[in-house]
What does this fold into?
Amino acid sequence: MTSRASLPPEPSVALRELLAFDDGGSLRLLLAPAGRDVGVRGVAVGEEGPARPLDGCLVLVTGAPASSPEAAAPVREAARRGASGVVLRAVEGVAAAPQVVAAAQEAGVALLTRAEWADWTDTAALLRSALACARAGADDGTAGRMAAGGPESLSALAAAVAAYTGGSITIEDTRLRVLAHSATGPDADVLRRSTILGGRVPEWRVAELRRSGLLRALWTSRDVIHRAADAEGPERLIIAVRSGPEVLGSIWVAGDGRPLRTDAPDALRRAAEVAAPLLVRHRLRESGAARRSEVALRGLLYGDGDARTHAWSLGLSPDAACAVVVAEPLGSASSPGGRALDVPALQAATYRPATRVLRDGDRLLVLLPVDSGAERGPAALARELAGQGGGAGVLAGAGPVVAGAQGVRGSFDEALLIVRVLRERAEAGGAQRSADAAGVGPSLDVARVLDAARPVWEAGSGPVHELVRVDLAAGGELVRSLAAYLDASGDVAQAAARLVVHPNTLRYRLRRARERFGVDLDDPDTRLLVTLAVRLSG
It folds into this structure.
């Protein structure tokens, strides 16, 4: 029996070929002392397991980023163990540390960085798929000839599989969306035409495949599935495309007015091998684009990085008018109504074509481009999102329309404040679930004043501070009584009714505040400070 150690090493692939596979832009080559044709035999994680040879590997260093001088040490270590290159995490807008670049130059290893929006799992999958794809293209036989049409193209693979099987081809992902197809002949069946035109297998057909058990067989089988011709369509061959145990998609072969070749199943098996890295690449491209958009939208909303650049990344004009709408569940996201934002998220995504939506924890953030001629603006969207919350309850606040990307952070901040005001009103028994600034009136300015006053209050001292500190520690009865009295504009009977106590009980508590803590509510300044204190204490 041949031991693993005696197996011949995998053939190396030029670094240039691996980088060509990365059309999503997740990798950047900073330095290649041995040139771009340096050979790469595998991918390794620098910190995994005990020290072992890394001959010809591209090493992923998951610790310090390229901008940190500390990354120089793992670069030297990887080179000492035979690595051909090292990949470090980039920090957006920050250059690689000179010490790191010098270490790579002296050690003679290629230095690459991974984009901040990518992650290590996808980077490893990308590089391993690139290696597999390049090696498939270098093999002799069917797989090599199929890949020779261009490993960058699923369409080229579909055309090659059509030639080797004698049928019409669709390559689909796990959601049965058509990613590529071969040319459609004049005798193609109706199902194939509707699938290609619609970009996915029709729903009625998916339901039929589920009922018949064919879908289950496809996702669990590792071989070609044959479906004989019948009155509804021609003969078909199907195979799942896998990367290890994971199903990536499938290839479908349909007779197109002629019998399939007798060796079509063998060709389809080899096609599935070639398709695996291509489908990984497609998935990474999709997820990479989604992550880049999420990073750009998050940066735009929270004011991190250059706002104009983020807008361009989202496909939006940085000078176009827009507004932010924020939605939150009224209750806890961990409660039975915790999925309250699912339907509003779908509603927001389809509200207008250029709308951008971000789920940020228990919060839904919507960037809405505003057309002066549009009938439905931010306030209308807020009403719709609140209405979509169902029984769980959703609060939605619409920030002001701003002139461009630079104002998005301000619109976002105001939308957050509006939701906070709505929540306070809801907790006090109010029924309002959505609003813009006009809909919450002076409460918005009060919230701003309280936010500005909080640091001053927390840094202060005196009788009112002592009263609040001592009473809250004892349960807050006196603070609640003061709040009710002030809210009732000094009407003892009305405040006592709100507290459900006798008016004399409330008078006693007010007298206690004066006698014990020296808080005189007849003094206007004291009254104002107590008003702020009880609001700030919640």
